[in-house]
Amino acid sequence: MRWSSIVKTNDEEIEQSDVTVMSYVPKQFDLQTPDSALQYLQEKARGSDFVMNDVLRVLTGVEDIERKTEEQTIELKVLEKVSVLQEEAYQKAYELGLEEGRKQAVGDTSAELQQKSQMLDQLLENMQQIKEEMVRQNEAHIMKMIYEVATRLAFDHVNENQDLVLKVIKKSIEDAQADENVNVLVAPEQLAFLEHVQQSAGRQNDFLKKIKFVASDSVSVGSCVVETNYGVIDSRIEERVSKLWAELKQAVPKVKSPIEPS
After folding, report:
1. Averaging pLDDT over each range in 8-12, 50-54, 139-143, 153-157, which range is the top one?
2. Distance between CA 7 and CA 20 in Å, rounded?
3. Flagellar assembly protein FliH/Type III secretion system HrpE domain location, by residue (predicted)?
4. End of a domain among 126, 147, 179?
């Protein structure tokens, strides 16, 4: 086999040291792992106790294969360990996230429930206030209704019993404590009746003798206005009813919208 080609100069006198090497092709060696070595590795993997000589292990490439195999095994174990650690880390992060999420959810829910509880308390308080106000309104309206009914009954009773005006006149004169110059304003509808009673007055109606009756459109039936030198006494039914309502209003429950007689 030709290992190299040497080119010489034409000058035979050139010394051997002047020879120039133009090219060099090293010998190729087949370093493939023999089948027997591969079989050895297979048997060893199955658990064989046979141990190859260290020199043979190097020459056959078994050592290199075993080293690579061991590195791969170590790398796989490292990857497995890393995978386990990653899984544990993910699991812990997931659990931590769940716990944080649960705490956040509990906190948010608690805040929402507290807010709704406060709103419910406020609503119940408002409803209680409305209820109390409605009760007061009803009581006030009931009092007003009773007053209105009583007023109408009183007017009807006075219209049906003209004699009642005599009691009103007598009481007004007594309150005025007047002995003379007394003018009594009465309803035009009752003027004739009162003058007739005055003319035919008995002992019980002596107080009418010093009275001058005057018809007035501002006075309703059953009412009178007594005028004396000392002042005026208004005994009209409307005035007495108004005073009565003023007294009743003191006992009427206080409401937001005032209740006034119609």
Report:
1. 139-143
2. 7
3. 115-243
4. 126
